UniProtKB/TrEMBL annotation:
<dbReference type="GO" id="GO:0016616">
    <property type="term" value="F:oxidoreductase activity, acting on the CH-OH group of donors, NAD or NADP as acceptor"/>
</dbReference>
<comment type="similarity">
    <text>Belongs to the D-isomer specific 2-hydroxyacid dehydrogenase family.</text>
</comment>
<dbReference type="InterPro" id="IPR006140">
    <property type="entry name" value="D-isomer_DH_NAD-bd"/>
</dbReference>
<feature type="domain" description="D-isomer specific 2-hydroxyacid dehydrogenase NAD-binding">
    <location>
        <begin position="106"/>
        <end position="276"/>
    </location>
</feature>
<dbReference type="InterPro" id="IPR029753">
    <property type="entry name" value="D-isomer_DH_CS"/>
</dbReference>
<dbReference type="Pfam" id="PF02826">
    <property type="entry name" value="2-Hacid_dh_C"/>
</dbReference>
<dbReference type="Pfam" id="PF00389">
    <property type="entry name" value="2-Hacid_dh"/>
</dbReference>
<keyword id="KW-0520">NAD</keyword>
<dbReference type="InterPro" id="IPR036291">
    <property type="entry name" value="NAD(P)-bd_dom_sf"/>
</dbReference>
<feature type="domain" description="D-isomer specific 2-hydroxyacid dehydrogenase catalytic">
    <location>
        <begin position="54"/>
        <end position="308"/>
    </location>
</feature>
<keyword id="KW-0560">Oxidoreductase</keyword>
<dbReference type="InterPro" id="IPR006139">
    <property type="entry name" value="D-isomer_2_OHA_DH_cat_dom"/>
</dbReference>
<dbReference type="GO" id="GO:0051287">
    <property type="term" value="F:NAD binding"/>
</dbReference>
<protein>
    <submittedName>
        <fullName>D-3-phosphoglycerate dehydrogenase</fullName>
    </submittedName>
</protein>
Amino acid sequence: MKIALSSFWRHEMEPRLPADVEPAWFQTVDEAVEAVRGAKMAQLDLLAPERDIRRVIEAGEDLEWIAVCFAGVDRYPLDVMARRGIAFTNGVGLVAVPVAEWAVMGVYALAKGFPDVVRMHDRKEWGQSPYGTVEVSSSKALLIGYGHIGTEIARQLRGVGTDVTVVRSKPDPTTGVLGPDDWRATLGDYDFVILAAPGTEENEGMIGADELKAMKKSACLVNIGRGSLIDQTAFRAAMDAKEIAGALLDPATPEPLPADDPLWDAPDTIVTAHLSGRSQTTMPARVTDLLLKNLERFRGGQDLINVVDTERGY
């Protein structure tokens, strides 16, 4: 059986593949177009626009299953896969711990004003006053999105005493879990608002001018979900007006963010170039483990792990 695989994983995957599997390795979009011809399956990990990924999938006329290492799949043409009946699996859970650690790092960095501490160091200045005095252990956080990553963020923050309120698609009043229509009215209650939701159409711009104005002026925003979750024009205006105290933005729109984008110069804002998921060393082994488990299931006619709902987008 022929399968198309990203060369990024070749060192880990190649020696572990079943002997009767014929891998076709690719690095670029053009190489992927050739690799998927005649392939039944593709591990389609491409940092490319949707139009290019669409071109690759259209070239793979025999594709029955596409896998990706990413949790967010907003760059993939779900309509094509739904129409053709192609099974689509993602990498939910593969980077939950490092991404959660990045988000928690952001909470601490903002709480203690750490970017200004670094600048103080660069000036070789022995400051007398701290730049941030928020104690994370006694703070309140609103966590929007409660998948694998959100669950891990909540675990880590609750471990130090942070009062975490969760927002997910299905509310649960018995445990204090808020639903999609409940959280906006509570924004003024929190020291931190953390975005870990998927980049679906319904979530686009969920944090805009009204939401930023509703937050406490001393509150901070952390986004490790998708850049589309924030109205970036409204965000820049809010930061200029000092409507909130600070923000850490890991993803952005577009990516890479152009050097002249106003987001780079937003006051009290840390832009971290979507590095959260890459801040680890075990990803190749975990991606390979998941591929091999699903490959066995695929060949045996069993249900795959991490199947994406192409209607909901995650």
